[in-house]
Amino acid sequence: MHRHLHSRGTGAAIMSTAMNFGSKSFQPRPPDKGSFPLDHFGECKSFKEKFMKCLRDNRFENALCRNESKDYLECRMQRQLMAQEPLEKLGFGDLLHGKPEAETNS
User: Fold this and answer.
1) What sign for the dihedral angle of Cα 50, 54, 60, 62?
2) Cross-referenced SUPFAM superfamilies, in alphabetical order (predicted)?
3) What are 31-64's pLDDT values in tens digits?
4) What is d(CA 25, CA 23) in angstroms, rounded to the nearest whole number?
5) What angle do helix axes 45-57 and 66-78 make, rounded to 10 degrees?
6) Cα 29 to chain centroid, rounded
7) Between vectors from CA 15 to CA 8 and to CA 2, what angle results, nearest 5°?
8) pLDDT at 7 (0 to 100)
9) 79 near 44, Cβ under 8 Å?
10) What is the dihedral of CA 53, 55, 58, 61, to 10 degrees?
């Protein structure tokens, strides 16, 4: 019987901790790359649609849609919808300095 009381006490302690967690104020943390505002005016909608179509057409293999992804991010940067970043830092260096390997082998 003592063991039953002990486990019940532990359960209450766990529940109490969960309730305390809910009462603490949540402190949101900004994204690593800063804000990424919504494109309210659809300035980059056509780029986003081309990228999404490419993903759908390629069974969501994002490596096959890198050009569309790069174009979309360039549009967002040009219109101050995201922080300016060098495309090399975003993983598109090979698209800037020559054709991607998949295209050079064909």
Assistant:
1) negative
2) Cysteine alpha-hairpin motif (SSF47072)
3) 666 567 889 999 999 999 999 999 999 999 999 9
4) 6
5) 160
6) 15
7) 10
8) 46
9) yes
10) 170
